[in-house]
Design brief:
The complex is a heterodimer.
Chain A (H helix, E strand, L loop, with lengths): L9 H15 L4 E7 H9 L2 H4 L4 E8 L1 H4 L2 H11 L4 E5 L13 H6 L3 E4 L3 H10 L4 E8 L4 H13 L5 E7 L2 H10 L7 E4 L1 H7 L5 H7 L3 E3 L4 H16 L5 E3 L11 H10 E3 L2 E4 L3 E4 L3 E3 L8 H4 L15 H5 L31 H8 L1 H16 L2
Parallel strand pairs in A: 1-2, 1-7, 3-4, 3-5, 5-6, 7-8, 8-9
Antiparallel strand pairs in A: 10-13, 11-12
Chain B lengths: L4 E10 L4 E6 L2 E6 L13 E5 L2 E6 L1 H14 L1 H12 L4
Antiparallel strand pairs in B: 1-2, 1-4, 2-3, 4-5
The chains are: A alpha/beta, B alpha+beta.
Bound molecules: iron/sulfur cluster (SF4).
Chain lengths: ~375, ~90
């Protein structure tokens, strides 16, 4: 319980953990935390060490940087290398490897690639440099898609013509469906993403409870939030219920953020299908700009290779993103693949399971080994 | 990017575009409040900010607790603040 003292209310955390142990009665339970933010919290605060050993937390596909396939990075780099373009991106994307280097490499070779904090900063650059073309690399789930949407609406209203968006927004529900349909993994429930749910609300998860009979608890990002969510999941299971519950009521409203959904609907529409790293092509799982916004669509404005590129052979990000293997089970984890020299995306973003495990998870790993050793020593 | 950071609204600086000046741990920057305006946004209110957009209105006690928890996150939070620092939204 190394980190328990850092929790909002350590005593409460210990009490809830004890209650989880009582309710689950040692029955092995596997819960997926869909969101990379949760993965980060879990490792950073050693939550696996606080929970009973019978509870297994597996990490899901909710890290937007991690799920972007290599071909899209290559496309981004192709746009960034176009004469006259200022290519703007969130910092996380800079070091993600494409098939021939990253955006950072392209920058070192002369492409004008810049970090921005917000799509609105990219729009401001466009106003500042009317003779250049400013492209914003839009990535993320429903948490960030509304910001791109509002920025597009403003670009149109103000007639900013030298601004465009390379849209890679993805939607969480189809990815969860793909995981539920995949035979590789048996799950007992989901810790629902907090900030995605702040936008989409609770209703989109209903099918998980209704059709798959698995509980879902939407959770906040602090250690105590996650422990509480696990408790709520275990409680549902012990009472034979499968429902969508909200642990993060202080931020998530049941109906979500209607304004944000509206802005998305006005500017974007579903793609027929989109490739996810590790999960392959998933239908209706990503967004592109509506035809009315064609003038601001970088995909239409620039030549992109648009090729499908296979992941490097050694890379097992796909299995990590589906929760089939733990990060440290990948053969190159911590040796050939580290945050300094990432082979796969999961090692790049702080929300990626491999990076989180590499930075903080080694306590748990040591504990795991000790535990296994003690098991093998008992006669 | 999935990290939401609490900020306190100082004033609405551009009514037409719903841009407000906010204070995030002492860093004063502009963010869009377009997506929470229907909840009624006034100086003194706290909001949860993602990539330059207030996405949810939160109460003050919650904001302070969240800030404390974020400070414990270390690098991830200070990096986010550094990025916010570089922001020049108008
Ligand atoms: S260790 Fe590297 S290559 Fe292996 S799954 Fe993680 S990110 Fe991918």
């Amino acid at each position: 319980m190394k980190f328990v003292d850092e929790y909002r209310d350590p005593e409460l955390a210990k009490r809830i953990a004890a209650e989880i142990a009582r309710l689950s009665e040692g029955r092995p339970l596997k819960f997926m935390e869909v969101c990379g933010g949760h993965t980060h919290t879990i490792y950073k605060h050693g939550i696996e060490d606080v929970l009973p050993r019978s509870i297994d937390l597996v990490h899901g596909p909710g890290c937007p940087v991690c799920v972007l396939p290599m071909g899209r990075i290559d496309d981004a780099i192709a746009i960034a290398r176009t004469e006259g373009v200022i290519f703007t991106t969130f910092g996380d994307m800079m070091r993600v490897p494409g098939s021939k280097g990253s955006l950072l490499d392209a920058k070192a070779e002369g492409a004008d690639v810049r970090f921005v904090y917000s799509p609105l900063d990219a729009l401001k650059l466009a106003r500042q440099y009317p003779d250049r073309q400013v492209v914003f690399f839009a990535i993320g789930f429903e948490t960030t898609a509304p910001s791109t949407a509002v920025t597009l609406l403003r670009a149109r209203a103000e007639g900013v013509k030298n601004f465009s968006v390379f849209c890679n927004h993805v939607t969480i529900i189809p990815a969860i469906k793909a995981i539920l349909d995949s035979p590789d993994l048996r799950l007992d429930g989901f810790i629902g993403p907090g900030h995605v749910s702040m936008v989409i609300g609770m209703r989109p998860y209903t099918f998980i409870a209704r059709d798959h009979h698995k509980p879902v608890v939407i959770a906040g990002f602090e250690p105590l939030d996650i422990i509480q969510a696990v408790y709520m999941l275990v409680k549902q299971i012990s009472e034979g219920r499968a429902e969508v519950e909200n642990q993060y009521t202080r931020v998530v409203r049941p109906e979500g953020n209607m304004r944000a959904l509206e802005a998305m609907a006005r500017t974007m529409e579903l793609r027929p299908f989109f490739e996810w790293r590790g999960l392959g092509f998933i239908t209706h799982s990503a967004l592109k700009l509506r035809p009315e916004f064609a003038d601001w669509d970088a995909e239409l404005r620039y030549e992109v290779p648009g090729l499908r590129v296979a992941d490097p052979k050694a890379c097992q990000c796909g299995e990590v993103l589906k929760g089939v293997i733990k990060p440290w089970e990948c053969k190159v984890f911590g040796t050939a693949c580290t945050p300094e020299t990432p082979i796969g995306t999961c090692m790049v973003s702080p929300e990626g399971a491999c990076a989180a495990y590499y930075n903080y998870g080694r306590f748990s790993m040591a504990a795991e080994r000790d535990h296994l050793r003690s098991l093998s020593q008992t006669p | 990017m999935c990290l939401g950071i609490p900020g306190q609204v100082l004033e609405i600086v551009d009514d037409a575009n719903s841009i407000a000046r906010v204070d995030v741990s002492g860093v004063k920057r502009n963010v869009s409040v377009a997506l929470v305006r229907s909840e009624g946004i006034a100086p003194g209110d706290w909001v949860l900010i993602h990539v330059g957009f207030a996405m949810s209105k939160i109460d003050e006690a919650e904001a302070r607790e969240t800030l404390k928890a974020l400070q414990l996150m270390g690098d991830v939070y200070t990096d986010e603040l550094k990025l916010l620092h570089s922001s020049q939204i108008e």
